[in-house]
Structure to design on (223 residues):
């Protein structure tokens, strides 16, 4: 099993550009979440999903959209990139009552 | 609203010394999870506690959930250089595991 796969691993965007961070899991997990991690800080929840067709906002949802059309995929869309969105983005999935399995992350720089 | 503090923020220990990190909540937690993140890596799930007073062990790691379910700790006995990393507590929203919020983490440095 691949677990949670995130693409791309690195990305540089110009301010105002849009892009989609991809996340796929092959463990048939119900729950999926997106977190961002800024240098020296913890993880902040952006959006999460409890199943296909169901998404909800986390702590820092502004500037991001998500959709969950299948159990496996949970893409994160940056609508109009800003320098404040420079961060490492982690996608994670879980099947309760177990903890989250994380992807290896996408390092995003917005210039 | 709910506030959870994780302390200390940083800890430097000599190899072989013990290490403890704490998470303290202002309200009762339904569950608590612990994760480890190595430098440059992603968080890795260690364990979940759900019962009042629960204690679980994994080799040199001991995890506790307080009787009031407001506090939790992770204790490492006789640290090794492989223990280096940041340890996070995390908690699910009331009654569930859907929305998991992470603490600020404790960064552990082990001096050989």
């Amino acid at each position: 099993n691949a677990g949670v796969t995130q693409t791309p691993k690195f990305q540089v965007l110009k301010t105002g550009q849009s892009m989609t961070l991809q996340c796929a899991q092959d463990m048939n997990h119900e729950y999926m979440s997106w977190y961002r991690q800024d240098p020296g800080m913890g993880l902040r929840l952006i959006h999460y999903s409890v199943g296909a067709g169901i998404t909800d906002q986390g702590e820092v949802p502004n500037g991001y959209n998500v959709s969950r059309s299948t159990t496996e995929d949970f893409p994160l869309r940056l609508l109009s990139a800003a320098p404040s969105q420079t961060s490492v983005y982690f996608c994670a999935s879980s099947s309760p009552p177990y903890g989250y399995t994380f992807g290896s992350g996408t390092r995003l720089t917005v210039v | 609203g709910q506030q959870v503090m994780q302390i200390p923020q940083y800890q430097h220990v000599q190899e072989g010394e013990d290490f403890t990190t704490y998470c303290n909540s202002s309200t009762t937690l339904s569950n608590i999870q612990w994760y480890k993140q190595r430098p440059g890596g992603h968080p890795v799930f260690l364990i979940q506690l759900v019962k009042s007073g629960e204690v679980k062990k994994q080799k040199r790691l001991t995890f506790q959930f307080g009787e009031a379910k407001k506090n939790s700790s992770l204790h490492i006995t006789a640290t090794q250089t492989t223990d280096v990393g940041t340890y996070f507590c995390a908690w699910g929203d009331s009654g569930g595991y859907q929305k998991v919020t992470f603490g600020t983490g404790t960064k552990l440095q082990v001096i050989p």
User: Anything to note?
Assistant: Chain A has a mean pLDDT of 95. The longest strand of chain A covers residues 43-51.
